[in-house]
Specification:
252 residues; alpha/beta; six-stranded parallel β-sheet; 10 helices; disordered C terminus; binds 2'-O-acetyl adenosine-5-diphosphoribose; binds zinc ion
Length: 252
């Protein structure tokens, strides 16, 4: 962990009341959740991402895609929020507003106690109708039987409620994310490579709106050049050090 970056980031946050946080796969790395690319390890190595995470791939072999998501849901269920997730959840009390925008689909921010993170890539625990008839399932245990299950309302397939290759993000969620990052007094960017658009453009939008950007990552990212400060280290090491022990601050 870089001491100088950490101290500078702490001083920057001392005056901040509205904090926005953008998280990516690195946020959950220390919880043992593989990143999308790591998730192709083992059994799944012979399949390419287009096959497992695209509308075409799903239509070609819905059972294969469904099994891959079922396996990822098991990994997520077995994982626990790490010290970084917990530090963010606990820090909510110390800011007048702490809003999380996440690219992760694992639900670990909520399990750590963060309220309503904006999940711009969806959530693998939720499912919805492929034909968009409106059917939605919040929990895997509520799903009808079948692999993949059929939509009881229209007979189409049910699919995971995540953003696949070639799909647009939900426009309402993306707008909410843009408002959060541009309306904050600082943006913390944790564990994202900055490679995948449009999420990777959010820090630059914040910067253009005059919002200082702090990056937390153990390695260089594609968006380091737009950061005001970089804290080199992992989410579970840096976030408790950065956000823990801050004096509770009144709302205002
Ligand atoms: P990536 O897998 O592209 O990048 C992960 C980032 O996390 C890298 O910058 C790592 O250096 C960093 N990292 C690794 N371990 C870390 C740790 N312990 N603490 C903090 N950072 C760590 O993941 P994303 O940027 O999230 O999209 O990728 C974005 C999107 O690409 C994903 O949401 C997914 C994928 O395709 C969709 O599912 C639509
Ligand atoms: Zn349906």
């Amino acid at each position: 962990m870089s001491g100088a970056g950490l101290e500078a980031a702490k001083s920057m946050l001392a005056a901040v009341r509205r904090l926005a946080v953008l998280t990516g796969a690195g946020m959950s790395a220390e919880s043992g959740v593989p990143t999308f690319r790591d998730a192709q390890a083992g059994l799944w190595r012979r399949f390419d991402p287009q096959q497992l995470a695209s509308p075409e791939g799903f239509r070609a072999d819905p059972a294969l895609v469904w099994r891959w998501y079922a396996w990822r849901r098991e990994l997520v269920a077995a994982a626990q929020p790490n010290a970084g997730h917990l530090a963010l959840a606990q820090a909510a009390a110390r800011f007048s507003r702490l809003s999380i925008v996440t690219q992760n689909v694992d639900g670990l921010h909520q399990r750590a106690g963060s309220r309503e993170p904006i999940e711009i890539h969806g959530n693998i625990l939720r499912s919805r109708c492929l034909a968009e008839c409106g059917a939605k399932y919040e929990r895997p245990e509520d799903l009808p039987a079948g692999e993949p299950p059929r939509c009881p309302d229209c007979g189409s397939w049910l699919r995971p409620d995540v953003v696949w290759f070639g799909e647009m993000l939900d426009p309402g969620r993306l707008l909410a994310a843009e408002e959060v990052v541009t309306g904050a007094e600082a943006l913390l960017v944790v564990g994202t490579s900055g490679l995948v658009q449009p999420a990777a453009g959010l820090p630059a939008q914040a910067r253009r709106a005059g919002v200082p950007v702090i990056i937390v990552n153990p390695r260089p990212t594609e968006i380091d050049q737009i950061a005001d400060l970089i804290v080199t280290g992992t989410a579970a090491a840096v976030l408790p050090a950065l956000l823990g022990g801050m004096a509770a601050r009144g709302v205002g």
